[in-house]
Amino acid sequence: MGEVLAAPTDGPLRPGDRVIHLAGWRDHALLPVTEVSPLDPALPTAVAHLAQGSAAYGALTRLAPVRTGDVVLVTGAAGAVGTLAGQIARLLGAARVLGSTGSPHKAVRLVRELGYDEVLLRGPEQPPFADRLRAAAPDGIDVVLDTVGGEQLAAALAVARQGARVAVVGALAGQMAAERGGGSAPVEIDTFRLVVRGLSLRGYAGTDHPGVEAEWRERFGGWLRSGAIRFPYSTVEGIDGAVRALPELIAGRHFGAVVVRL
After folding, report:
1. Is 38 left (phi over 0), alpha (psi -120 to 50) or beta?
2. Residue 214's pLDDT is what?
3. Alpha helices per DSSP H over the chain
4. What is the mean pLDDT of residues 88-105?
5. Residue 131: per-residue pLDDT
6. Pick the residue with more confidence: 80 or 183?
7. Could you tell me if residue 128 is inside a domain?
8. Is residue 19 domain-shared with residue 86, that is, in the same domain?
9. Which residue(s) pair with 73 in the sheet?
10. Residue 256, by phi and psi: left (phi above 0), alpha (psi -120 to 50) or beta?
11. Over 90: is that where the pLDDT of 186 sits?
């Protein structure tokens, strides 16, 4: 998000306008007017335009639609997507929302501040994730929004109910694996279970759903104004901070999104 410093006098933008662009973190950018978008008045604050909830909203309404009374699991619940995903699932009618995180402190915040019913800790010192997930959801899970992959995705499929819907929006297990360099996230899954349980497993790409972004902003703005949803984020100061902001986000150093403020 940036501020227009100069623009053609016969164009739609004027100096001082706030806009969204995809030119990355930088102090200045020279861009065609077609590559910037004015801030949407549907959102009550400027920083809300940087929320990463559209993927969660799209996945939970298109690929793995939440139905009233569903049990929903969000992996990586304390991240930029996960902190919004649990709240979105509840607003869409979920009866029980489960999450996962590697931090006890974040687990407490997710329950206390964002309405998760239970958050499971992951890590080598913890019991097998599948066992704890079965205990937390003894009757199974209806919807999974997965941002992690790996052991957690395999466990979610093992606990899924008949006809459960699984949407994959991230692969943090691969991104955090030093030996993989972030380029892959393989996991062994039981395809026989996919068949006999009638499960759907799909990856979410926003470009496949062009109408989601505008729909999300409209609903997000209304939820923010009514107090039905929170947008947690941490702020990193200065362009120099951008160098560490992304790796810190992936490594789970922050709660929610990370905003670099120039």
Report:
1. beta
2. 94
3. 54-58, 82-91, 104-114, 129-136, 150-159, 172-175, 191-197, 212-226, 242-250
4. 97
5. 94
6. 80
7. yes
8. no
9. 98, 144
10. left
11. no
Instruction: Quickly state the pLDDT bin for 208 (edges 50, 70, 90).
Output: very high
Name the domain count of the chain.
2
CB 175 within 8 A of CB 250: yes
Contacting residues for 76 by C-beta, under 8 A, at least 6 apart:
82, 100, 101, 146, 147, 148, 170, 172
- Tell me the average pLDDT across 95-111: 97
Backbone angles phi, psi at 237, to 5 degrees: -90, 135
Domain range for 194 is: 54-206
Whether residue 160 contacts residue 198, with contact meaning beta carbons closer than 8 Å, is answered with no
Instruction: Give the CATH number, domain containing residue 107.
Output: 3.40.50.720
Residue reference for tokens 């929903």: 72
Q: DSSP per residue over 21-39, as a string?
A: ESS-S-S-----GGGEEEP
Which residue in the block uniquely carries the two structure tokens 């649990």? 86
